[in-house]
From TrEMBL:
Belongs to the bacterial solute-binding protein SsuA/TauA family. It is found in: Cell inner membrane; Periplasm. The keyword Cell membrane applies. Its main location: membrane. This is Aliphatic sulfonate ABC transporter substrate-binding protein. It comes from Kitasatospora putterlickiae. It comes from the Bacteria. Pfam families: NMT1_2. Residues 52-62 have a biased composition (Low complexity).
Amino acid sequence: MAPNQALPHTSARPGAGRIRRSAAAVVAGLTAVTLLSACGYGSKSEDDKPNAAAPAGDSASGAKLSADTVRIGYFANLTHGTPLVGLQEGIIQKELGATQVKPQIFNAGPAEIEALNAGSIDIGWIGPSPAINGYTQSNGEALKIVSGSASGGVKLVVNPEKIPSLDDLKGKKIATPQRGNTQDVALLNYLAGKGLKVNPDTGAGDVSVLRTDNKVTPDAYSSGSIDGAWVPEPTASKLVTLGAKVLLNEKDVWPDKKFVITNIIVSQKFLKEHPDVVEAVLRGSVNTNAYIKANPDKAKATANEAIKKEAGNALPAAILDPAWADIDFLDDPLANTLQAEADHAVTAGLLKKPNLNGIYDLTLLNKVLKEKGQSPVADAGLGAK
């Protein structure tokens, strides 16, 4: 592992076919998964494979930009609703003209960062912690954050019989999706604020933090192997349908109830060589977010259709509706909260104080917003140098 590695990663989780197992086998595998996470940089899982073409929508037509194709990475979950809707409805492809989108689905941020570094993708939707990690590990040379995408959509959900209040977390077992991921950082920081000590590497301490794939978490909860989880949507709402209770909505611990959950990042090499393509993708993202706000029910259905196409199953209304309602799709990257999340990782013991100067380049986003008569967004002093 490289010295001063930020937010150490787990390897990407096994594919869907390998996680359909009994709850007992799932629990038995948790320790092994944690051990495997010790120093991996995020190799691709079986699900992290490129698709042959964009999910749906209009095929590429019109003028071609400076690149024949643009390879876009994202997750098939609701906090990545912008690419789900924008690609499914053809909104992003429309802005790209004859430049063809080649999408790639990921299950974990480290695998997406690895793909960006390897040149397998050009642009990606991703959470703040992997973006911070990718930037700091490359000494500021790998990527830029060029836009926001979503805020909210993260909750602490628990077994109400075992954890009736936030003062009853000591001695309990709480799951997060991945060691050093955005939700893991948030939980460790929250526990530290309550005076509860947890080893950031092993997850052992006053609260046992178990790092496991979101696909596994519902089975682990049903079997009683975990007492709760700090997870993004739709996993949080899935647990509620299994009898869990929302003990804390993460937005309630943030000023103005807003914090970045999804950014858009781009390879610095691709940004330098193809700024017109990046601008077109950002224009498509801004248009998609406007479409989501103007057509919330249609957008929700479109996102669910895309999830069904990628994951094999659509979300039932009992999960989809509360999950979608808790996510705010927006263009502002909420840069001040990115710095705060980095500070939280330092507090949690997952990261040495990072230098994030230059992590943002919002030039093209603000150009698009100006064209639409909207106010520019700020980079909190962390803009391009």
